[in-house]
Specification:
elongated, 21 helices, disordered N terminus, two-stranded antiparallel sheet, mainly alpha
Amino acid sequence: MAKTASDTKAKRSAKEAAGGKGVIGKAKGAAGTGKKAAKAEAKAAAIAAAEKAARPNARGPAARATAEKPPQEEDLAVATVRKVAMEGAKTRSEHDLLGDGEVPAEALWGVHTKRAVANFPITGVPVGHYPELVRALALVKQAAARANHRLGYLPEGKARIIDEACTLVATDPAYAEAFVVDAIQGGAGTSTNMNANEVIANVGLRLMGRAPGDYAALHPNDDVNMAQSTNDAYPTALRLAVIFATQPLVKALDDLAYAFKSKAVEFADVLKMGRTQLQDAVPMTLGQEFDGFHATIKEDVARLTEIVGLFREVNLGATAIGTGINADPRYAALAVEELSRLAGQPMVLASNLIEATSDLGAFVLFSGTLKRVAVKLSKICNDLRLLSSGPRTGFGEIRLPAVQAGSSIMPGKVNPVIPEVVNQVAYMVIGHDLTVTLCAEGGQLQLNAFEPTIGYCVLSSLRMLSAAIDTLTKRCVEGIEADRERCRALVQGSIGLVTALAPTLGYEASSRIARRALKENRSVAELVLEEGLLTEAQLNGLLELEAMTHPTRRQKAGTAG
């Protein structure tokens, strides 16, 4: 079993209290020079205990009961809805534009975040649900701090602490629990940006041995948000998050394509009937059918890899509307340079920051590409469901792995539940694409206020598609079996065979044979031999697998020289 959340928090709190070596320099922690190790350990334990009690995602009795159960074969991720428990909690007072507000004493977020949580109880899905976005936000703040330090605006001590705090937030998944604002919010992402500023400031304060909320020493806006606006920091982080989140999707698609290719090889000699408009067409192999699935998935990998590159262009340094107010003229280029280094991605500064701040065309195009993936994936799943239908009264050409009982009333029934869930994910992604389109169109003048919903839709689509494709690969495609006898029987009984004979018999004779076969419920081969149109040897040659499933051209009967 994985380590418990409390173990992770305690370890992290001890790490914060003890300090550590950052990229800019060595941060002085609560156990800095002259303090005894025992005192540092005691303080770390106290911080861990207080944080556990104050955290919005503190584990309740049900979670504890689950953790105490004997280890199972694998850990199961279970969705939960958690709330901030304020009643009876020790609090601290913070001040903002609207006045004073109380927040849990050891919370890593502050009053701006608290107001946003109260204002936007919309989806129940917090920003922390998307670890790629949390990581990207931390990297943007880290890049900004480094640029401001290089330009001489942010002192060495503060720059060092912000740098180390950002590293912790970006690399330790436990910090995602502190990003508690709802993913869909008013304000063009201001609440998310404030949440990030407060968390990084308070993590930094702990590294300094100070209590959360001691903003005189390190301020969320003046220091962490220096030379930034929500309008450049949030869009930049969102674009970087999409780049991060696309990587698992590309891998999932590659794995699915490989699984289909493996089945194509396995089924290369399985003759079956191809169908158009759900009617018998001409023979093919099951391997050819699965190889088609492989090819269409690989196309999507190529398109995604190409389109995601649009997000490498960012407006970091644009500040409020693209004019760069409150930022040094050199800041934008330095910040993007630092972000590229930190993220390991070749990010570039937009050529026109005013246009880049208001335009969301890249999201529209990328979302459309996700819709393309979803549509093609859903079509494949429809095919798998048809091909496995039955098992006695449908096509029954393939058998999908049985993963669960299919009915509470019909014993022995097994349903194609994996392709079905992928279908439903595809429909969600298609709906998200329409939402992205409307949000992008709905922006006004120098800013689009609906970017949080665009982020919610795109990141949700990426997450769902990655999970659905991974599930389809592992719990369905890899275990598919062919019913070879059923496939061959359907071919032998189909009038579609006559198409393979048409170049030799001619269209008129072939049409007559087809009509007789259908009317008399007899096989095409039987009627061809009965009418003496071909010898048995000739017929067998024309109905060989290679002859029916690859390009060939035969002379008409009686015309051979």
